[in-house]
Amino acid sequence: MINESFSSIEKLKDIEIEGGLRTKNIFKKTEIKKPLITIITAVLNNEKYLEESILSLHNQKNENFEHIILDGGSTDKTIDIIKKYENKIDYWCSGKDKGIYDAFNNGMQLAKGDYIGFLNSDDYYSKNTLELLNNYIKNYPEKDFIFGAVKKHWGVLYGYKPHKIHWSWGFYSSHSTGFFIKKESAKKVGLYNLKYKYSSDYDFFFRMIVQKKLQGIGTKKSELFGTFRRGGYSSSIKFFDHFKEEISIRLDNGQNRLLVLIIFIYKYLKNISKI
């Protein structure tokens, strides 16, 4: 179910283990001319890439951020890696959840920051990501969200054209690693809908842009916020599972059925032509 107006919480229920600065009563705050950025990382059995992801954030220079890591009950060395950086991570916990979007929802409700971002455990930030972000926040304070350029295996995904959400498919503007939103604006959109296992971020964007009409901006191609590593959660999703969910999202958000049918036919034909 969607919580249309999620509220902040101090602690999660049903967790097996937790740690980080908050458990020592150390909390970060907004600084003058430097808003607090909450970065949420969801992870499950990713000992291979998690450390690189963590360091890409914590090696950012002179930026005010808090890092929340939510582990879904890993059985590999993921927890050992998290504990290695426990004095830098603001809060982390481990316990079974309902998947990546459930973890994102928990992280959003734990967030103390003025802005919220998502760093998947497979992905990593550029060296100057938070510096670029703060420049956009300073220059465009009226914007609700920012889509940063993200490098993928086929090239760079960048820019923001709000009308494209009506007819494009998939990651139409930015991967979650390049996405940042004001916390107060995120509250207007609500949490990720757990009905969707594969494409709930697309549903979130649809509600954010079409229903709530929030205002955003995209960075230039050269202003790379991060890198999406192929082979993560979204890469493992079968085309038609992803496809069926996006059809449902469009219809649930009130999109014209004829337009959905046209897009379906186009996307289907384009996909089978690759087979």
Describe this structure in a few short sentences.
The chain has one domain (17-234): Spore Coat Polysaccharide Biosynthesis Protein SpsA, Chain A, CATH 3.90.550.10. The chain contains eight helices and twelve strands. It has helices at 50-58, 78-84, 100-110, 129-139, 183-189, 200-211, 239-252, 257-272, and strands spanning 17-19, 37-43, 65-71, 91-94, 115-118, 124-125, 145-147, 149-152, 155-157, 179-182, 216-218, 224-227.
Shape: globular
Helical content, roughly? 25-40%
Listing every helix as H and every strand as E from the N terminus to the C terminus, the arrangement reads: EEHEHEHEEHEEEEHHEEHH
Number of domains: 1
| Spatial sequence of strands, sheet with the most strands | 1-4-3-2-5-10-7-11
Mean pLDDT: 88
Total DSSP helices: 8
**What is the CATH homology-level superfamily?**
Spore Coat Polysaccharide Biosynthesis Protein SpsA, Chain A
Q: How many strands in all?
A: 12
Overall structural class, as computed from helix and strand content, comes to alpha/beta
Radius of gyration over C-alpha positions, nearest whole angstrom:
18 Å
CATH topology: Spore Coat Polysaccharide Biosynthesis Protein SpsA, Chain A
| Poorly predicted runs of 5 or more residues | none
Terminus-to-terminus distance: 37 Å
Based on the structure given, which CATH architecture is correct?
Alpha-Beta Complex
Strand content: 15-25%
Output the CATH class name: Alpha Beta
